[in-house]
Amino acid sequence: MSDVRAKAELAKKSTGELAVLTTEQKNEALFNIARSIEQQTERILQENERDIENGVDNGLSGALLDRLRLTETRLKDIVSGLESLLELPDPVGEVLESWRRDDGLSIEKVRVPLGVIGMIYEARPNVTVDATGLGLKTGNAMLLRGSSSALNSNRVLVDVIRQGLEQSDVPSDAVQLVETTDRGTVQDMLKLNGLIDVIIPRGGAALIQRVVSESSVPVLETGAGICHIYIDRDARSEMAHSIVINAKTDRPGVCNAVETVLVHEAWAEKELQPLVEALEQCGVEVRGCSRTQSFAPSVKQANADDWDTEYLDTILSIKVVDSLNEAVAHIHRHGTRHSECIVTDNEQTANAFLQQVDAACVYHNASTRFTDGFQFGFGAEIGISTQKLHARGPIGLPQLTSYKYVLRGDGHIRGGGPTSC
Fold this sequence. Notes:
The protein is an alpha/beta fold. It contains 15 helices and 16 strands.
């Protein structure tokens, strides 16, 4: 038996207990995990530093190292995320719909846990805790497979989490970490239909595409974030500068950072050069089409691959377009249906953009960095879904449940059928 299957079986066995936990029991477990993280902050940071040192030795980019790094502040944010879940309503057991037939048979549509959630993710140790917190609040078991670059961090975090569970009524087997990080373990997880109820990949486009194409387990896809900002001819310069700089430089290594800016030619004539200068002052490498270079000569020539690249770094591509329609066509050709923004003071143009663009989140005059469970008021999130079925946008608590129909009768039988043989 493979290590992955053995851990999946342990997780599956815990789902019966998880499904009947009260909200109070789940909240107690989350509270204990939060306290355990606080008490062992120094130990967690020491293990994370080992991963950082290995990452530097292995040539990880600055943006990837940023995603990998834990600090006291980030651990406090992780703890705050767990604590925020205590205040959120427990969706399990919620009656979504109910009705009574003419013959008195009652029917209810009730939220239930998904079961075992398999998480496959890259160098983001915060996902280990965020995903576990959301999973436990919704009565799900977690099978976690993180990146080899974050193994020390993930190992200590799962140990700390399980210590918190041992102080509560939640079985510690509900959280499992796959510590073998070779590519074969991913393939093993993708074949465990029946033990794993859903797999959520979180990472780059190559990882997500592999999971989607090879998995026999249902997949909740969290797509790559090739996010666009379209600066319309009627955009205010100061607003456009502020939004673009925030969306690119606030945290360039995350999926809701902007990667491509599309600029209407009428705006570009006077305003593109100052925007490029502002970006370069912030340390951003700007690449662009030939028309972009004609307005801003310092811009590097973009190639065809740039429009399809999630940089996750301080790199930005700019393309000059003639119209809203050209901008929308570019987004549909190169985007990932994640987060797309228009900057304009023209309400008619804005509404056309918001209606036409096919993405989980569309913005008017706001940074794409708001695509986030906390910012939406959902509490911690497990990722951003770019698919259309089951869940779309930030994946919070309700999106980690399914439902079943509960029927209550009083000896009801289907009309006219036999009652004995």
